[in-house]
Design a protein that fits this description.
This protein is of the alpha+beta class. The protein contains 14 helices and ten strands.
């Protein structure tokens, strides 16, 4: 069975019909109507050589003849060619409403590109419920966030290689200078190159079953026999946080059954716990509440956005800063479980040294 691929054209105005155009069907129809290759080519405003070559190429591709090639006779379609035209007419007639709806959806999507007041900002970031809420808010105001969720480390790397305009990562409010977080992010941020932007404060903790039937109070409980943990992959900020918490508790990864069991997002971890596949996993409170789980808070984090200094004055970034500084965003943030806009300095450009007390580029460079 041959497969179908759809395509579309952008033009100032629509054609005379709402059909999905296909060059082969257009040529077959023209040959059927005009009775010759040359007249069909003229009707389509194409050269004879182009039409003749296209027909030969399609015949070879399909393994069937399309035209009866009798010299000196009126050109006509083969039985197969006639059936192709019939099948296309049937499909177009049946799918006309869906084709019209699809066309209008595509037109609405592309209208943003032609709107000088609309902006698109590409953001690679650690998984976060507040970012999803921000995307909903900004799109109504003409700022479209093209968000790709990935690990904090991968997001920062993408920013530094030019694959996105902004990245999002999270750290504890006061991580130690020799922590895994400090070691991981310090080398990814450089003065004069990056600008740090305040976004939100949030809680991370252990997501557990509803009402916490196992009475889990902290990571130490996860070392008890029979406890099942579900982790996040390497390169995620939550994995970095877990490793720091284990070190501070005097624990090692082998103390936790399930350390090597990984899920790609906070939501996926919550689902694993809700389904009974695991007893606990580190994540954000919003993901736990969404799945009806219990939540044991462990740390407060600062979620930061970062962009290149050269991008700070651009229209998309400036539009984002205005959204983050708005009263509407503060209300949205305060309504999210586990989040707080208080003292988060949302939308403010921050000093690396002030916001990240463990960060010291010069000292690290000298070492």
């Amino acid at each position: 069975m041959h497969k179908v691929e759809l395509s579309y054209l952008l033009s100032p105005q629509r054609g005379k019909d709402a059909l999905i155009r296909n060059p082969m069907m257009d040529i077959l129809h023209a040959v059927s109507e005009q009775g010759s290759i040359s007249k069909a080519a003229k009707a389509l405003e194409l050269s004879y050589r182009h039409v003749w070559g296209a027909l030969k190429d399609w015949e070879q591709t399909l393994g069937r003849s399309l035209i009866v090639w009798d010299k000196g006779q009126r050109a006509r379609l083969t039985d197969f060619g006639e059936k192709l035209l019939w099948a296309e007419r049937q499909a177009q007639a049946r799918l006309a409403p869906q084709i019209e709806a699809l066309t209008r959806d595509i037109e609405r999507a592309f209208s943003t590109a032609f709107d000088d007041n609309a902006h698109v900002l590409t953001l690679f970031a650690s998984h976060d419920a507040a970012l999803s809420a921000l995307r909903d808010q900004t799109s109504a105001h003409g700022l479209h966030l093209d968000i790709r969720f990935m690990g904090s480390v991968d997001a920062m790397a993408a920013l530094n290689t030019g694959r996105c305009m902004m990245a999002g990562f999270h750290v504890r409010a006061q991580p130690q200078r020799n922590s895994a977080a400090a070691h991981t992010y310090r080398s990814l941020l450089k003065p004069g190159l990056h600008k740090l932007i305040g976004f939100a404060h949030r809680h991370q903790g252990l997501m557990v079953a509803r009402n916490n039937p196992l009475q889990i109070e902290g990571l130490a409980d996860m070392s008890h026999p029979g406890m099942r943990y579900v982790n996040r992959p390497e390169g995620t900020g939550t994995r970095v946080l877990l490793d720091d918490l284990l070190t501070e508790a005097g624990m090692v990864p082998s103390d936790i059954q399930g350390y090597d069991n990984q899920e790609p997002s906070h939501t996926a971890v919550a689902q694993a716990i809700a389904s009974g596949a695991a007893d606990a996993g580190l994540g954000i409170e919003a993901a736990a509440r969404e799945k009806g789980l219990g939540f044991v808070p462990l740390v407060q984090e600062r979620y930061h956005l970062v962009c290149l200094k050269s991008e700070l004055p651009t229209l998309p970034v400036q539009a984002l800063l205005r959204e983050l500084q708005s009263d509407e965003w503060q209300v949205t943030l305060d309504r999210l479980p586990g989040y707080s806009g208080e003292r988060a300095e949302s939308g403010k450009v921050l000093s690396l040294r002030a916001a990240l007390p463990w960060w010291s580029y010069r000292k690290e460079k000298a070492a």
